[in-house]
Design a protein that fits this description.
Layout: H1 14-36, E1 37-46, E2 51-53, E3 63-70, E4 75-81, E5 84-87, E6 97-99, E7 106-108, E8 117-125, E9 130-140, E10 147-156, E11 159-167, E12 174-179, E13 186-189, E14 198-206, E15 210-219, E16 222-231, H2 240-268
Length: about 270
């Protein structure tokens, strides 16, 4: 009678145990991310433009359902179900929404400041994976092109003196003056006036000719520039008394600003 032998179960080595534990952790993390991932994003848009709210979907995912909503009471505004786009009737975004069928991204056209809020998106993939994201949209007023006014232009002894005032609309707008490259005269900018968001430039150059100055308004990532070409001619000259008085005041202001600029420059050295 032959003896029956029993094989002892193989025991895992410490190395194999660590490898299996690591695989289990990685698999658990993947499942958790796919089943209930959540993220938040902040984006900034400007009135009159279009903004794209990212759904956060991975390119490898096959989306079966997308649902965009706003407010705490979950007001649905747009969605995607089995490849069909659904745009809900809602007065705030009427006629301005569209969804990317592949990514689930939401585009809002012609945004306004009232569109600033948190947008929620829920995704469901074809294999049952779920994901939720929030996008906080902030819409700011678009920067407008500044206006330029001529406050002085006078021709004295074949030398032209001008003063230009640049005015911006809106708050927290920075203004700056620059002449074209061919300008070979002298110029200096005054101190920005915060009361009416304006900046004056004083310039002088020889000859009866025209020169071009650029006023640039900037706020955040926005920049707008307006040009003005000005010059002096015999017709722009005033009566002698007015010319002498006006030019004296202009030269006094010009020299004062120049001395102030040199003082600040030397002080900073």
């Amino acid at each position: 009678m032959s003896a029956i032998t029993r094989e002892e179960p193989r025991r895992l080595t410490p190395t194999n145990q660590r490898a299996m534990s690591l695989c289990g952790v990685v698999l658990l993390c993947i499942v958790c991310i796919r089943q209930a991932s959540s993220s938040e994003e902040d984006i900034t848009g400007y009135s009159g433009q279009s903004v794209v709210l990212k759904s956060g979907a991975d390119r490898s995912w096959s989306l079966s359902r997308v649902q965009w909503s706003i407010h705490q009471n979950t007001t649905f505004i747009a969605g995607l179900k089995n490849g069909e786009v659904v745009i809900y009737t809602f007065w705030r975004h009427e006629g301005r929404l569209e969804i990317n069928i592949e990514t689930g991204d939401l585009t809002i056209r012609n945004v306004t400041v009232d569109d600033s809020m948190t947008y929620n998106v829920a995704l469901v993939t074809s294999d049952g994976g779920r994901s939720q994201s929030k996008v906080r949209l902030t819409v700011r007023e678009s920067l407008k092109t500044p206006d330029i006014q001529t406050t002085l232009h006078s021709l004295i002894d074949n030398k032209c003196y001008i003063a230009l005032k640049c005015i911006a609309s809106g708050q927290n707008v920075n203004l700056s003056w620059t002449p074209d490259d061919e300008f070979d005269g002298s110029y200096i900018s005054g101190t920005p006036n915060s009361a009416d968001s304006s900046l004056v430039v004083f310039a002088s150059f020889s000859g009866n000719r025209n020169i071009t100055f650029n006023c640039t308004a900037s706020s955040g990532q926005q920049t707008m520039t307006r040009q003005m070409t000005v010059g002096c001619s015999a017709s722009s000259s005033f009566p002698v008394v007015a010319v002498v008085a006006g030019s004296s005041v202009f030269l006094l202001i010009f020299i004062s600003l120049l001395l102030l600029w040199r003082y600040k420059k030397n002080k900073g050295l």
